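Input (structure):
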């Protein structure tokens, strides 16, 4: 088993940036100023599968929008932080609260403001369209783009490393996403 597979297998906490990871990074504004984001339903199912496998999920975003909190609520993600100015400090507080070591923490981000957590995680992942600086330092650069299946691809890689994907792929999943 490769070092990356071992690290993926040992994850207890997966932290996700939102814009550019769970979304394609585009923002649409309604006439009243409300921000609209588009989320990929397959990414959502991937996150539900990780929760079922016992992995704690968290969203840490610098963005502000009711859509982020709503998506977290829909997916049962209780650790949702928005308008975060210091992702490094927020992640450290969360790790301390949950008593999760850096080696058991994964993070997926797409830009320079996500790179600041590199030293606090065992696995740093990036969508295919992440900024070059982050891709260079990532342990895993995914084939899919942010908002277009990158999170699902990461979920499948984690589940495969844990030996849980084969049964899911053969038998399906019966719960609601």
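Output (sequence):
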């Amino acid at each position: 088993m490769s070092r990356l597979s071992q690290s993926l297998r040992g994850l207890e906490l997966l932290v996700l940036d939102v814009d550019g990871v769970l979304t394609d990074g585009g923002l649409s504004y309604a006439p009243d100023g409300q921000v609209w984001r588009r989320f990929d339903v397959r990414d959502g199912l991937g996150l539900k599968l990780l929760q079922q496998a016992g992995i704690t999920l968290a969203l840490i975003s610098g963005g502000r929008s009711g859509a982020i909190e709503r998506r977290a609520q829909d997916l049962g993600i209780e650790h949702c932080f928005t308008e975060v100015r210091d992702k490094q400090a927020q992640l450290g507080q969360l790790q301390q609260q949950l008593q999760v070591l850096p080696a058991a923490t994964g993070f997926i981000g797409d830009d320079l403001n996500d790179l600041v957590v590199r030293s606090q995680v065992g696995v740093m992942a990036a969508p295919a369209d992440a900024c070059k600086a982050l891709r260079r330092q990532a342990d895993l650069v995914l084939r899919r783009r942010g908002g277009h299946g990158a999170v699902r691809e990461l979920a499948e890689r984690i589940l495969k490393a844990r030996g849980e994907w084969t049964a899911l792929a053969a038998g399906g999943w019966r719960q609601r996403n």
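Notes: The domain at 3-165 is CATH 3.40.50.1000 (Rossmann fold). The longest strand covers residues 56-60.
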